[in-house]
Design brief:
Shape: elongated
Largest sheet: none
Number of helices: 6
Oligomer: single chain
Strand content: under 5%
Distance between the termini: 40 Å
Helix content: 25-40%
Amino acid sequence: MRRTYGLDLDDLWDGGIRVGTCADLAANLPPGSLVWRRLDVPDAWTPVEHLLALQADQMNMWMWGNADPKKRGPRPEPLPRPGTKKTERQPGRTVPESRGRAIKPVAMTLEEFEEYRSQRFVDIGAEPYRSGTPDGADG
């Protein structure tokens, strides 16, 4: 959000940005955004990047087509595009394995979201917070 819109997500929790506005901004990130690149979807590239890849593919096909048929190699493969990666299936596997974890979206009401957000999450590796005074006592 900061890179594209100049907004800090901490403002969401402080009430500076409404949840709906934040969701709208996230859903409408422009092509080429880091989120789309991470998700490996076609919007990971901007239209300019898609056109450059198309131009390279056309040039490769033109050079291959104009080469001597007896000397040219196999037909050139197009450049890989985002969002077109084929999953490789291993023998005996029914479900393709994923390197990452899939997060299933869950619809919830605003009240459920507020209740979830108000929970106290504890990081077991973090030290307890000490307020104000060096010894941690509020005096």
